[in-house]
Amino acid sequence: MIWIVALLGIIFSGVGFFLYRLGNKIKQEHTILTEGVVIGLEERRGDDGTTYALKVCFMDDQGREIVGNSMISKSLFLTKNYPVGAKVHVLYDALDSSSFIVKEYDINILGLVGLIFLGIGISLLFVFVGIELLVFILRLD
Fold it and tell me: Which is the most buried residue in 85, 90, 92, 103, by most CB within 10 A?
């Protein structure tokens, strides 16, 4: 039974580390910062319900107008801070300006979820080690 705690700790830590690293990798690939404008929301339906991605328009360094959707979609409640016309910071890939992220909207969620999973995983591993150490000490008596 106690080994399940260790296994869950390892799984949560692994997922957390992966998500955190993915957030950092995305930040490293998307290095050119510009300002964009929210022009709408794209509705995405899935098994978990309906979420919304920001539809953003911005100009790249070549003067081309780029229109696209944010990588991450969220509940309608979380998109209320980004009404049509809102200005946002866009980070795009120098090699492919159509590959972009909305700084305030996309990056923060990956890093945050990654850190939460990592924290849970490490906590579970500490619980496992603590219980195993307690059992070892009790056996010595």
Answer: 90
Tracing tokens 């990592």 back to the chain, one arrives at 118
61-76, pLDDT tens digit by residue?
A: 899 999 998 877 777 6
DSSP labels, 34-57: EEEEEEEEEEEEETTEEEEEEEEE
Cα(40)–Cα(44) distance, integer angstroms: 13
pLDDT in tens, 28-48: 777 788 999 999 988 888 887
Give residue limits of the domains in the chain. Answer: 2-140
The answer to whether the beta carbons of residues 89 and 101 sit under 8 Å apart is no
DSSP-based three-state secondary structure for 89:
strand
pLDDT for the residue numbered 65: 95
pLDDT reading at 101 higher than 70: yes
- Domain 2-140 in CATH 2.40.50.140: yes
**pTM (2 decimals)?**
0.63
**77 φ, ψ (degrees, to nearest 5):** -60, -40
Q: Supply the DSSP symbol for 103.
A: I
For the chain, give the longest Cα–Cα distance.
76
